[in-house]
Amino acid sequence: MDLRFERCKMLFGKEGFNKIKNVKVIILGVGGVGSFALDCLYKSGLTNITIVDYDRYDTTNLNRQIGSEGNIGECKVSTLTKLYPGVKGVIQKMDIEWVDSFDFEPYDIIIDACDTTRVKVELAKRYHKKLIMSLGSAKRYDFKKIEVTTIFKTHGDALARKIRYELKKAKFNKNFTVVFSSEEPKVKDKGSFMGVTGAFGLAICSEVIKKITK
């Protein structure tokens, strides 16, 4: 008997676990945040996950990204689809043209863990009802400052502020779920710490599970 998900079934119940198995999720960006969201969702029983990324691992990824160890120079999507059998991979640079052409309709939940502000804004305007967005996780090391809220209730995050500005400029006032940190950035450069970036990914996974089972 396969006991792999026995503990998940105990927690979520039979009906809840069946919902989790059948939900269709796409993760945009599988770096420090997205790779941990992927790991958590996969180990929670999701069987229909698509990941999108264009980058290859480099040495600076070793401190925080699942799949980077022993795979420097390798494509992130190719590596992760081997580590997580059954996950579908799309090797693609995410820009506005791609958002325009890609069919997001089949997905129940869109996880935005990409770095491009224009793409994040466009996704919010089009798919806010099924969007969970990661905001700034770099430059911080206190996981206790991580919060889950809606975009217009964020504070202390420069990326969130920029996204709010762009959405208001477009006269967009719909809310959607975001994970952010209110911690003041500790450095100007892109210093990063897995205790925060990984926790962002796990928080996103938790929100997905709550959304499915509630």
Question: Could you give the topology of this structure?
Answer:
Layout: H1 6-22, E1 24-28, H2 34-43, E2 48-53, H3 76-83, E3 88-91, H4 96-101, E4 109-112, H5 117-127, E5 131-134, E6 146-150, H6 158-169, E7 177-181, H7 194-213
Parallel strand pairs: 1-2, 1-4, 2-3, 4-5, 5-7
Antiparallel strand pairs: 6-7
Helix pairs in contact: 2-7, 5-6
Provide a short characterization of the protein structure.
This protein is of the alpha/beta class. It contains 7 helices and 7 strands. It has a single domain (6-213), classed as NAD(P)-binding Rossmann-like Domain (Rossmann fold, 3-Layer(aba) Sandwich).
As for the CATH topology, it is Rossmann fold
Q: Total domains, how many?
A: 1
- Any idea of the CATH class? Alpha Beta
Strand content: 15-25%
CATH architecture: 3-Layer(aba) Sandwich
The tally of beta strands, per DSSP, is: 7
Unreliable spans = none
**How large is the radius of gyration?**
17 Å
The fourth-level CATH homologous superfamily is NAD(P)-binding Rossmann-like Domain
Write the H/E string, N to C.
Answer: HEHEHEHEHEEHEH
* Separate helix tally: 7
Largest sheet: 7 strands, mixed
**Oligomeric state of the chains in view:** single chain
Q: Would you tell me the structural class of the helices and strands?
A: alpha/beta
Specify the overall morphology.
Answer: globular
Mean pLDDT across the residues is 95
Strand arrangement, major sheet: 3-2-1-4-5-7-6
